[in-house]
Amino acid sequence: MRKTEEVFNSHPYCCYKKKGRLSVFVSVRQKQHSEMSLTAILSEIDGGDDKGAEKLLQKYNTENSHTFAFDHKEEDARIKLCQGLLTVLRRSDHPLCQSTCLETLRILSRDKRVLGPVATKEGILTLAGLARIHVAGHNVELLEEPQSAEEERVVVEALKCLCNVVFNSVPAQQVGTDVKLAEGLCAHLHMVSSSHHEVGLFSLRLLFLLSALRTDVRSMLRKEAGAVRLLTDILERTLDVQWVGPYEAMPPTPEALTISPENNELAMEALKALFNITMSDSSDEVRVTVLVEHQLFFKA
Fold first, then answer.
1. What's the pTM value of the predicted model, to 2 decimals?
2. How many CB atoms lie within 10 A of CB 286?
3. Rounded to whole angstroms, what are the CA distances from 254 to 58, 73, 257?
4. Do residues 81 and 41 lie in contact, with contact meaning Cβ atoms separated by under 8 Å?
5. Partner residues linked to 25 by β-bridges
């Protein structure tokens, strides 16, 4: 045994495991700290101390911002935390507390095994309400467009959570279809101001995911929600397309500015969603119209 291995094996807080040439050091202290953190957070939530929970969650978020692999032994605790976070989100009206809880939920939603409490009608509607997406026929408070940076962060974090949950959970996809989340999202996109870039970006990304994962959603978006017109309008506005005729776009002038990185992101997300919605349409009229518009956009 090498001297280095002896040092690590003798350390009271570390375990040493060798697999081929790969040496993996697992800190027992870190595992214990993680377990204690989850227990402490759950204790604060159960006791109704949202302020105390918020402080612990901020620390948890900092420590786990780049965590994508989770300890299986803590799975039950993370499921309880998902449920606890939804409880706090329903009772708190403080933007900082809401965004902190949503950030934690976004981190947890990277693990598809703990999404049971979130991938429910109640969970999806809670997130939709915080994302300012109105779901028709459900008692979800329709909030106005965010006025402050703190309010906008809540909306963006809620949209990011929805993206993760929809991507990682088939039950969440079904719930989203049942409550017509995509239809509400289209109405939401009609009202999003260009000044709220991330709100528009993650709204389009969520629309892309819903249309990519559910064929029935694609059909609904095409026939009922007017999504093709919505997305082409977004593309025209984002790419600053100027029409000189029914089927002719004005070419850019030599002095024209290049597309900003923000508008480039929006255009890509809109095109991805538009492709999903139109790719299986058997209608020659719709297909030809979309192909012509795509060609005109590329020429512009």
1. 0.80
2. 15
3. 49, 61, 8
4. yes
5. 16
